[in-house]
Amino acid sequence: MKKFLSFSSALLFTVLCFNAVGQGSQIQEIQEWLIENQEWKTQDVSNLTVTHSYRSNHNGGTHVYASQSYNGVRIANTNLSATFNKSGDLIHVAPRLIRDIATKVSGSQSISLLQAIETQLVNEIPQLEIIQSLENDPLGRQKLTLTGVDYEHDSRAELVYYATPEEDIKLAWTFDAELPSKEYWYFYAVDASSGELIQKIDWTVSCNMPHIHEAHSCRPSSQKLQSKASARAMTTADGSSYRVFEFPVESPIHGERTLAVEPALESASPFGWHDTDGAAGAEYTITRGNNVHAYEDIADLNEGVSSDGGSDLNFDFAYNPNELPENYTDAAIANLFYANNRIHDILVGYGFDEASGNFQETNYSDDTAQDVDFVRAEAQDGGGVNNANFATPPDGQRPRMQMYLWETGGNALDIFTVNAPDEISGSYPSSNFSEFGPGVDGRRRRKQ
C-alpha cells in the first residue's frame, strides 16, 4: 500500500480563536447561565470551544454552537446551541454536554491516523492510498484525499476526545469516507489507543419500503402553497427558462408541466442558477451552477451527462409519461435541477443561507462559511429502484443526491408507521410503484 506523508500525525485539533470582544462575552454569558440555572460545574463548561457562530439574516439573531474540550482537545458528541436576539440578549440555550468530564476521559495516542483509516477502509477501497494535505480546513480538521481503483474522495480528519453513548470519553481519530458504490458515506470514530471502531455513522439518508400490503390509488392534490420567501422576492433576469413541474406541483399526477421563466430568486441566487463567479453572465449553459450540478447517472458511475439549454438557457425538453425513462432523460435532469435550486432559494428566505452553511460553490457575501459544496444531483440513477437518498456531509464538502427510477406493475402499497410525535403518530400508506409512466418494470441498471 502506497502512502504519502506530508507531515507527522500530531494533534490535529486547532482551537478556533475568536478575538472579537462580542463573541468572548457571549461564551462567558452562556457559561454563567449554565452554572447559575442548571448547576453545571465550572470545570465542565469553562472550556467551551466555539465550532460555529453566525448572525442570521432571517431574524437578526446570532446563533452560537460549541463543544466541550479537555486539555485543548475538542470532545466530539458534546454540543451546545445558544441564540442571542438582535438586541444581544441571550434568549435560548440547549446544552447536550457531559458532567464530570475529567473522571471520564481516557486513552493516549498509540496508532496514527493512517493506521486508523487502513483498519476501516483497506477492504472497502481497492488499492487504497492516503494522501495528506499540507493544509487544514478552516475548522482545523486535516484534509485528506483517499484514492483507489476508479475512486477518489476528499476527506476530513480530526483527533478528538469522543463521547460514547455511555459517556465514556476516549481519544479517537475521526474521518469520513464515501464508499466506492456511492450508496454510503460514513463517518468513523476509531480509538486512538487500540484501533477499535468506536462508532460508524452513515451520512446518507434514504428510505426503504420492502413490504407490499394492499391496493392503493393516488389522487391529485388540490392543495396550493405559496412560499413566503418567493412571494416577497424578485427574480434574477438571466433569460433562463425551464419546462418543469413548477412548485407546488409535486409530480405528473398532481398537475401539468409549465414553462418557468427566470425562476431564480435574486435574494438567494443574485446571478442566476448557472453562475459561479459572482459576476453577470452564466458560466454554464448546462444544468450546473452555483447551487447544484444535475446530470444523469443511468450507468451508476456517479457521473454523467447534463442537459444543455444552449446560450439562451432554454431547458424546454419533451416528456411523454408513456415512454421509457431514457426517452425523457433531459426533461428529468432539468426538473431535478429546477427542484434543487428552487428549494435552495426558498430556504435562504427562512435562514438557511451562506452564513448558516448552505450548499453553494461560491459564497457571494462576506460571510465566513465554507463554500465549494454545491449539490451533486443524479437523475435516473442506476444504483437502485423505488428509492432516493441524500448524503449531507459538514459544510465545505459536496453532498450527493441520488434519484432512482420507480418500478411499475401494480397498485400495491406499503405501510409505514410514525411513532412520534403524538400529533402525527399512526400508520400511513405509501405506494411502492410509480403511478405514471412505464418505469423500469423491475429492471435494475447496474454498472458492469
Task: Give a verbal description of the structure.
The structure is a single chain. With about 450 residues, the protein is of the alpha+beta class. It has two domains: about 1-200, no CATH class; about 230-430, Elastase, domain 1 (Roll). Helices cover about 10% and strands about 30% of the residues. The chain contains five helices and 24 strands. The strands form five sheets. Strands 1, 4, 5, 8, 9, 10, 11, 12, 13 and 14 form a ten-stranded mixed beta sheet that branches. Strand 21 (about 390) and strand 22 form a beta hairpin. It is globular. The two termini are about 25 Å apart. The relative contact order is 0.11. The model is unreliable at about 1-20, about 210-230 and about 440-448 (pLDDT under 50).
Topology:
Layout: E1 3-4, H1 21-38, H2 42-45, E2 49-55, E3 62-67, E4 69-70, E5 73-76, E6 79-84, E7 90-96, E8 105-106, H3 113-121, E9 129-136, E10 142-148, E11 151-163, E12 169-178, E13 185-191, E14 197-202, E15 204-206, H4 228-232, E16 241-244, E17 258-261, E18 292-296, E19 314-315, H5 329-348, E20 375-385, E21 388-391, E22 400-405, E23 413-418, E24 426-431
Parallel strand pairs: 1-9, 5-11, 8-12, 16-19, 18-20, 20-22
Antiparallel strand pairs: 2-3, 3-6, 4-5, 6-7, 9-10, 10-11, 11-12, 12-13, 13-14, 15-21, 16-17, 21-22, 23-24
